[in-house]
Amino acid sequence: MPYLEILAPAAPASARRELVRAVTDGIVRGFDVAPSTVTVYFVPIGADDYAHEGVHGLPPTGARVFVKVHAFRRDAARRRAAAEAMTPALAACFDTPARNVAIYFLDRERDEVAHEGHLASDDDTATPAVPATDPAP
Question: How far from each other are the two terminal CA atoms of the chain, in whole angstroms?
């Protein structure tokens, strides 16, 4: 965690590779996390999967790009830094003006996230109690 979902028109693989580097770097610097914690999911939007201002269908250029960032809560300064770092790369990748890039930070508390069946809020240093065995008769 953080996880990013990018809902946007399809883009060439080379552009997506460049974007992954840029958004990962933006999250790493903005949120002060390791690159190994950042995962990016592309959710391509086809021509029939988009509408804006009551008009159905993707425009040839300039579609709106929607990014959801799922992460533990960060303060406004960290969210701002991440958004400022990511927006130009998102706009370039999807051939749209920066004004068409919307980044939503879907903050999570540590007790709302589980990995390997354990809440992130659980104390990782605690060791489970070892059951006592009955002494041999």
Answer: 51
